[in-house]
Request: fold
Amino acid sequence: MRDTICVITGVGPGTGTALVKKFSERYRVAMIARKEERLDALAMAIPGAIPFVCDVSDREALASTISKIDALGDTEVVIHNAVGGGGGDVLSLDPDLLEQNFRVNTTALLQLVQSFAPAMVEAGRGAILATGNTAAYRGRVNFASFAPTKAAQRILLESAARLLGPKGVHVAYIAIDAAIDVPWTRKMLPDHPDDFFANPDDIAGECFHIAHQRQSSWTFDVVLRPFGETW
Reply:
């Protein structure tokens, strides 16, 4: 029998790792990230987690990786968690950074949808998620290199949801309006209490719930934030 696969891009030390741990409870997880050492360590620690070293902004490399994943089994869940970021306003913004962020945040998502959705449609089930943030809804001054690509990511996924939802494939955008609890945010915000931060395991748990919602009550736009977040 072919295995049931969950594909997760952007497997970093925070949300990505938590997603792998959670979804490995039900699937073999194809982990995609650029850092081989981290992926190998997770593969050793988590049964059924399979490492794929790939820069998702490289379309040929991503296509090759997808082909290898297809050989493993039937992909039922795809989570695009990879992110291209950086700061800058519209006057200082490097256009190359904007284009790179589009490749990571938006073009790679399109490639994932085009690669995995047809088989999901044929099977009549599946879920495609992207983790984002509230930059997808607003263009703040110093996020000009980032917000346009996240807005495009969300709108691309909304278009996918309108097409694929009636065919049995659940598509959802999960915006995380929070500082995620990882070492670098703790270092940057040393005076903030624990409940200021979003716990990666809690984020992963919500993503798991959304990926397995009943068809009568699917959500598309989801915003996660700690209870004390100002918004």
